[in-house]
């Protein structure tokens, strides 16, 4: 089952990863200062992942592909892992769209 996993980073800030049913991370968040803002970020992912226009495709310096999921205000709310192929990246976007709306929330902070 897919899930949003909330954890603290080394600086003590909260972050979440959206994990697919196979436990693979498919989207990672920015850092949040409070649990409320982290939960708002998760709700924003659930809402904005439904619209393909909210996904921004990028190319890293080494040629790898990745995507950002943006909120309606243009702020990045999540970033993907790196992909070697366009088809792999497209599958990643489809996985976020499929899993974000049904994912449970697991707080391991």
TrEMBL record:
InterPro entries: DUF1508, UPF0339_domain, YegP-like_sf. Gene3D superfamilies: YegP-like. Signal peptide: none annotated. Residues 9-51, 60-107 form the DUF1508 domain. Coiled coil: none annotated. Pfam families: DUF1508. PANTHER family: PTHR40606, UPF0339 PROTEIN YEGP (PTHR40606:SF1). This is DUF1508 domain-containing protein. It comes from marine sediment metagenome.
